[in-house]
From TrEMBL:
InterPro entries: Aminotransferase_I/II_large (IPR004839), PyrdxlP-dep_Trfase (IPR015424), PyrdxlP-dep_Trfase_major (IPR015421). It comes from Periweissella ghanensis. SUPFAM superfamilies: PLP-dependent transferases. It is an enzyme of class 2 (transferase). This is Bifunctional aspartate aminotransferase and L-aspartate beta-decarboxylase.
Length: 204
């Protein structure tokens, strides 16, 4: 076993409290596909490693690992489809419900909610070039409408590549307090290239 492997096992044991034998068994089983088609979401100990990474890279030290479940997918769009399916199956979103979408946004994200499977009404919360592609807090104020069941956004925006600033995050947090049943669906993808990305999930 290489020094790097030993260091990783020691880290998992000392920092994440994972038994070395359990980790090695999981890694071997995962490499062999020995549990196919189980697990349905993620290997148990692997989730601990990824949560530790997300705490540092996305949540910037705020420990959300204990309350964060991880479900790896084939990509961002697949994840969004799964989320909408889950919200529908659990009756959290029903056909005809309103969802707010921060635009401009990746085009398929505009198309998914209107598919026959979902039939959601879209409320456009628009960011404009005149505002340097930052969302205006006046747009966020529209979330006071209790008929809006969810807020769907990408941070940093795609294609604008603008992360939400502190003013926008504060406005979103205020709206969550005013509309506590509001579901926020956020695609926070930029932490690996944006230093200190203000994560919506962390701030709201």
């Amino acid at each position: 076993m290489t020094p790097l492997c030993i260091a990783k096992i020691n880290y998992s044991q000392n920092q994440l409290h994972i038994k070395p034998d359990d980790l090695v068994q999981e890694l071997v089983d995962g490499a062999l596909g020995n549990n196919y088609p189980v697990p349905s979401r993620i290997l148990y100990n692997t989730e601990s490693f990824i949560n530790e990474y997300l705490t540092k890279a996305l949540f910037h030290g705020v420990n959300l690992a204990a309350t964060t479940d991880i479900f790896p997918t084939e990509g961002g769009m697949a994840a969004i489809v799964y989320i909408f399916n889950s919200l529908r199956e659990n009756h959290l979103l029903k056909p005809g419900d309103k969802i707010a979408i921060n635009t401009p946004i990746f085009t398929p994200y505009l198309q998914i909610p209107t598919l026959n499977d979902f039939e959601l009404q879209e409320v456009d919360l628009r960011s404009t070039e005149a505002n340097n592609w930052e969302i205006n807090p006046l747009e966020i104020n529209r979330l006071k409408d209790k008929a809006i069941k969810a807020l769907f956004l990408v941070n940093p925006s795609n294609p604008g590549a603008m992360a939400f600033d502190k003013v926008a995050l504060a406005a979103i947090k205020k709206m969550v307090a005013a509309n506590p049943d509001l579901i926020i669906i956020t695609d926070d993808y930029g932490s690996v290239i944006f230093i200190n990305l203000p994560s919506v999930s962390k701030r709201s």
